[in-house]
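Please discuss these two lines.
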Amino acid sequence: MPVDTPRLSAHKIRHTTSTILANKVPNLKVVQEQLGHTSINTTYIYVHPNLATMRDALQALE
């Protein structure tokens, strides 16, 4: 029985790398520059919040 493995692509690697960079560098403007994006909106597309960040944001509301 074949196992379905997720396909790796340059696009997925870019999303992952962008997210890791954003987690290590809190200034998103710096992340934007490092990724070569002319618009911060493009950076927002590539950066995804992780579970810990989302949990911290919710706890800040308490």
Observations:
- The chain has a mean pLDDT of 89.
- The chain has one domain: 10-60.
